[in-house]
Amino acid sequence: MTDPMLLDVRGLRIVLRQRDRDVVAVSNVDLEVGRGEILGLVGESGSGKSLSMLAALGLLPRSAKVDGSVRLAGQELIGLRERDMRRIRGKRIGMIFQDPMTALDPVMTVGAQIVETIRLHEPDLSRRAARRRAVDLLGQVAIASPEQRLDQYPHEFSGGMRQRVVIAMAIANDPELLIADEPTTALDVTIQAQIVELLDRLRHERRLGLVLITHDLGLVAGLADRVTILYSGRIVERGPVLDVFAEPRHPYTRGLLKAMPSSDETLDRLVAIEGTPPSPAGRPSGCAFHPRCPMAIDPCVSDEPSFRWFGAGMAACHRAHELEPHRQEVVHAR
Ligand SMILES: Nc1ncnc2c1ncn2[C@@H]1O[C@H](COP(=O)(O)OP(=O)(O)OP(=O)(O)O)[C@@H](O)[C@H]1O
C-alpha cells in the first residue's frame, strides 16, 4: 500500500459568525503536501490562508463551523477532541509565525523555552537530556556557541537569530509537518535569505512537509514546489510552482506576479492589482475576482467558474483557456 499524503485537505469550508450572521470565509479548499515537499499558500490579506491552517491545527474560534476533511498521514483531524489535538499540535505539526518576538516569552531564557517545549510532549525526559537536545537544536539552526546562547534572553538575540530559535522550537519534537505563516516578513532581506536556506535544508534533512503562508511570491518561487493561490476564501489556481509562475492561467495570478518586484525592476514600475479584495460578507457573485478583473465578461458576474486543468495545474476562470502563455521571469533564478 502506498503511504497516505502527509497533509491532505479536501473540501474545506469554514463558516464564521460575524455581527450575528454566518459568513462563508473559506470554501472548497483542497491542499496536499507530501513529505519533504513545500506548498506555498498565497493570496492577499483576508483570502483565508491563516484560517485554513488554523482549521488544520484545531485553533479556530469556537463559533466557527468547519466542514470537509483534514488528514495528517491518513488521520482525520477535523472533529478531533481538544486533548487529542494538543498531542498533535507542537508535536506532529510544528508552527512558525511571522513575528518571532510574539512567539517567544521575553522573560524566559531561550534555553528554558526550548526545554519546556520539548518536555511538554515528553514529560518523562530529564531536564538535562532536554537541555542537551536544545543545544543540538540551536546548532542545527546554525546558532554559534549554543551552550552559552541557551542562557540568554530573547532580547539578546538579533531578529534573524530569534526566528532561528522559533524554528528550533518548531522542530524540537521532530514534527512531520511545519506550518510557517509569513516566516520571513519581519526580517531584512539578507536574513530572509538565510531563513529560506535553513527551511530548505530542514525539509531535505528531515523530510518535513512545509506549508508556507505568504504574500511574497518571490519566496514561493525560491522555495516552494507547488503553489495554491487563494482569493476570497476559494482557490483560483494551483499547480507546480514552475508551471504556474511561468504560465499563470488566472488573471489574479497574473496580477500578483506583475506586482512582484524582480531584480531589474524598481518598485515604482510595479503594477499592483487595482481595488481591494472583498470581505467574506461582501463576496461578489460569480467569480469573486470579477470586479477587479481586466478580462471579466458577463458569465464572470453570474456563474462561479469551475476548475480546468492546464498541464499539471488548474485554474478556475471562465477565460483561462483564452489566455496566451505569458512567460514570467521569476522562476529563472532557481
Ligand atoms: N475570528 C474571526 N471572526 C470573524 N471573521 C474572521 C475571524 N478570523 C478571520 N476572519 C475573517 O476571515 C477572512 C480570512 O481571514 P484570514 O486570517 O484567513 O486571511 P489571510 O489570508 O490569512 O490574511 P492575512 O494575510 O492578512 O493574514 C478575513 O476577512 C477575516 O477578516
TrEMBL record:
GO molecular function (one): ATP hydrolysis activity
GO BP annotations, alphabetical order: peptide transport; transmembrane transport
Q: What Pfam families does its record include? A: ABC_tran, oligo_HPY
Cited CDD domains: ABC_NikE_OppD_transporters
Q: Subcellular location, in the record's words?
A: Cell inner membrane
Give all residue intervals belonging to the ABC transporter domain.
9-257
Q: Which UniProt keywords apply?
A: ATP-binding, Cell membrane, Membrane, Nucleotide-binding, Transport
Q: Give the record's GO CC terms.
A: plasma membrane
InterPro entries in alphabetical order = AAA+_ATPase, ABC_Ni/Peptide_Import, ABC_transporter-like_ATP-bd, ABC_transporter-like_CS, Oligopep_ABC_C, P-loop_NTPase
- Going by the entry's taxonomy, the superkingdom of the source organism is recorded as Bacteria
Query: How does this protein lie in the membrane?
Result: Peripheral membrane protein
PANTHER family annotated for this entry? Answer: DIPEPTIDE TRANSPORT ATP-BINDING PROTEIN DPPD (PTHR43297:SF2), OLIGOPEPTIDE TRANSPORT ATP-BINDING PROTEIN APPD (PTHR43297)
Q: Give the record's family classification.
A: Belongs to the ABC transporter superfamily.
Q: Please report the name of this protein according to its UniProt entry.
A: Oligopeptide/dipeptide ABC transporter ATP-binding protein
Q: What are the leading ranks of the lineage?
A: Bacteria, Pseudomonadati, Pseudomonadota, Alphaproteobacteria, Hyphomicrobiales
